[in-house]
Amino acid sequence: NAGVTQTPKFQVLKTGQSMTLQCAQDMNHNSMYWYRQDPGMGLRLIYYSASEGTTDKGEVPNGYNVSRLNKREFSLRLESAAPSQTSVYFCALGANTGELFFGEGSRLTVL
Amino acid sequence: AQTVTQSQPEMSVQEAETVTLSCTYDTSENNYYLFWYKQPPSRQMILVIRQEAYKQQNATENRFSVNFQKAAKSFSLKISDSQLGDTAMYFCAFKQFPFNAGGTSYGKLTFGQGTILTVHP
């Protein structure tokens, strides 16, 4: 979805390293979300932001932090990466009609 | 908490045939949304169809239709005239009302585990 841009698309980290996944939108939606996708478990919500300046924990927040400094950007930070955080990460926007618009995903491997 | 269950890890169908993917959910709420998303090998999440719980009529989008059974908490997806491009992982998802004070939905989606659909030529 061209309205949601995630960077980087791929990343390999060593255990203990830190990194930030960036998400930017050009669709002017208030709510933004970070999900992780693991085989056999569907997508699970890490954190979400109902509006600029607010963030809340989702289902699996441990080991992550987020930042929503403005309406357009919502970043996800791993302070000390662990192999259990190897996953595909999706940023999404909440539409007024109920559904989510997703970015293309970021594949993260922690060795 | 709401839960969504897709009991079919994998399904296969011949091209031009019809296939039905199952989804059940658990909620005590009366107002909610249900969705089916498609994830092809490109990894992109694509909305296939949506259903509002207060609507009795089943949603339809071209070859895709749902069988929404509110009392049974069941939400199956039927794909007619299957095409090779329908090969993908399909996710059922649930979203609870209400909307926030500004009238903009901020609700979270809860996803099922997914069903891998393969369409054979």
Set out the fold topology.
The complex is a heterodimer of chains A (111) and B (121).
Chain A: E1 4-7, E2 10-13, E3 19-25, E4 32-38, E5 42-49, E6 56-57, E7 65-67, E8 75-78, E9 87-94, E10 100-102, E11 106-110
Parallel strand pairs in A: 2-11
Antiparallel strand pairs in A: 1-3, 3-8, 4-5, 4-9, 5-6, 7-8, 9-10, 9-11
Chain B: E1 3-5, E2 10-14, E3 19-21, E4 24-26, E5 32-39, E6 46-52, E7 60-61, E8 64-69, E9 74-79, E10 88-96, E11 109-111, E12 115-120
Parallel strand pairs in B: 2-12
Antiparallel strand pairs in B: 1-4, 3-9, 5-6, 5-10, 7-8, 8-9, 10-11, 10-12
Description of the structure:
The complex is a heterodimer of chains A (111) and B (121). Chain A is an all-beta fold. Chain A has no helices and eleven strands. Chain B is mainly beta and 121 residues long. Helices cover 0% and strands 50% of the residues of chain B. In chain B, strand 5 (32-39) and strand 6 (46-52) form a beta hairpin. The N and C termini of chain B lie far apart (41 Å). The model of chain B is unreliable at 101-105 (pLDDT under 50). The interface between A and B is medium-sized, with 28 and 28 residues.
